[in-house]
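Case study.
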Amino acid sequence: MTVKKRALMLVLPTVVVLALIVIFPLVFSLSVSVRAYDIRIPEHPFIGFGNWISLLKNPDFYSAVLVTGTMILAELFFELLLGLCVALLLLQLPRSRKIFQPILLIPMMVMPVVVGYMGRLVFEVRSGPINYFLNMLGLESLCWHASPDLALITILILRIWRWTPFVMAVLLAGLLSLPMEPYQSAQVDGANIWQIFIHITIPMLKPIITLVVIMRSLEILQTFDIMYVLTMGGPGAKTMTLSLYAYITGFRYWDIGQASAAAWLIMIPLSIMVTLFVKMMEKGEKIEQAK
Amino acid sequence: MNKRNKLLIRKTLISIVMVLIVIVSLFPIYWMLLTSVQPRHELMNYPPNFYTRHPTLEFWKFTFKESILEFFNSLVIAFFATIAAIICGATSGYAFARYKVGGDTLPFWILSLKFFPPVVAIVPYFLMMRTLRLIDTCTAVIITHMIITVPFAVWMIKGFIQEVPRELEEAAMIDGCSQLNVIRIITLPIIAPGLVVTALFCFIWSWNDFMFALILTRNKAMTIPVAIAGMREAHGLMWGEVSATAALGTIPIIIMAIILQKYLVRGLSLGSIK
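After joint prediction, the assembly is written out as follows.
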């Protein structure tokens, strides 16, 4: 009993700290979202679901949902594809892998604000290197992040550049942990590389791919920094993601009530994904303990 | 012999592809470093220079003069957010790993907080810090960063402690060691690398954070990312100056990542892949 109590004393401070810094803002933000909140006035009258309804009637909100959804699908597709290709290539180079892998992981360590700034630098219209390469190939210079058609693509290129290394590293770790036996027996049965890949590698990698998909979706759902630096959601609202939308509503237009409602609407898909993630981790832990 | 040659050719081809991928992935970083040491009159030339014959430290001098406060703020904030996380993580991580306090539910609840979206917290924290008159202080930013660093540290350290064989602790206990001594002499040295790894991750996270610092700081407590984002608005585009500041903010993190290398995947996947 005393041991249990002592252990509880060890946990208590952390739980109290976390409850204070996490539950407080959740409850507070919910209460702000049902008020007409003007920070210049001390009174904040209760208006029920007014903020939520006007948010759900606002086409800008849906455009932000669409942009965020597009980003999730496009990033997942390209990051998994590129990440898997690079991981499979590295798998073929058991010795030089140790040199290549750490170098390839560097983009992931660049802070997102700097990634946005790098985008400004390399996609510069008049004398940026990317347009220079295009000109060398005989193509016209493009406006990249300033053009309505290409702004989202520019952001996606930058984000794929930063995050593919993460996907690659996790997939490679997964590939390296796969057991050898299924491969050997498939080879004995005379399966070709493609068949082995589709019928053995992919099914065995499935838990890790699911994990990557959830972790990446969670991050993309909250993405903010690169757009803030590079486009501020523009041109128009072509690169306005949900997080940026909530930020601009709250801290540019000072509509704090509606910003809280928007933040809560991000919380809903996010909590579903977090629950899934935690379930997967729990399962993994059980398997580990059973071993 | 033929088969061996084929294998060699294949490996060479793959290596060439890898080198190309490396060039593409390092190019933006190289370009930023190049911009930070190029003399002003060479910047924005067309065609662009891919190297410079006259490197200059002009912009780096500017950065060290103008951004030193922001650099220092980032350092202080990341340091304290990390220390708090390690203290909470070590105490409760030990209790979770050894005494199963709260069963499975409590540690997993804490893990799920790692994904707490800053965008939900910014409004309430802004209002609260305003009431407490803590806007533009490092304290405000440290408190908000703990939302992410503490759950991460608890989870990671719990994992590292679980890997220490229980028998080792029990054997020492039988030899007459007190509980506290067992932790000090046996457990702590074994998990020390794990603690360092966790600390570095917390530090990187806090250092790279933009949203909390953007909302809670004005100028006295401004951090490096906020300074970089703001330089563009304040001075038009000063390519060289911004590049030097951005490089200054990025290089320490890249160095840390190289130190972390072995544990990078484990930290990034929250311990799910070891």
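Observations recorded in class. Chain B has two domains: 2-56, 61-268. The mean pLDDT of chain B is 88. We will return to this complex in the next lecture.
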